[in-house]
Write a structure and sequence with these properties.
mainly alpha; about 160 residues
Length: about 160
């Protein structure tokens, strides 16, 4: 039984490669971010205003996705990889206050924000000419928003009952 407990406790380290891969994805996003920023900077004189706005919104998308990935990696690392002694050693900071319920809410809200930025980009790029796709973009955004609202309300109700 002791060996099984040791093996089960050690299996949490299997999550480590996933968190490293998430950070590699953030590095890839950083490369694409730099490429997009370089494109905007080199074409700033002849770029149309709406193209500049959609380019900036694309950069905002990169930042939001990167922030979400970093938050998932760091919080997952603290929850799964670190031992109880290591968590106690870091003290009472923001990492110790984030549990999986609050992390899920942060991720859902990030997805709603990213979907909202994508809807705005779609509208600015070709919202008038492509009405069907624009409607579906709005429907998807509203579905994300409703899911986030329902999840937030149910989490709030669960907090008050406990």
């Amino acid at each position: 039984m002791r060996r099984f407990n040791f093996m089960l406790n050690g299996s949490r380290l299997m999550m480590f490669p996933f968190y490293v891969c998430i950070l590699v994805c953030v590095a890839l996003l950083m490369v694409k971010f730099a490429m997009q920023l370089y494109l905007l900077c080199t074409n700033i004189i002849e770029i149309h205003y709406m193209d500049l706005i959609t380019g900036v919104l694309t950069l905002v998308d990169f930042v939001l996705v990167a922030q979400m990935l970093i938050l998932v990696a760091v919080c997952g690392y603290v929850q799964f990889i670190q031992t109880q002694e290591q968590r106690e050693a870091i003290g009472d900071n923001w990492l110790s206050k984030i549990n999986f319920a609050s992390l899920k809410l942060i991720v859902i809200n990030s997805l709603v924000t990213i979907a909202g930025v994508e809807v705005l980009k779609a509208f600015l790029e070709d919202g008038i000419t492509n009405e069907i796709e624009m409607k579906w973009s709005v429907v998807v955004f509203l579905a994300f928003s409703m899911a986030a609202l329902i999840y937030a309300v149910t989490e709030r109700m669960a907090e008050h009952k406990s």
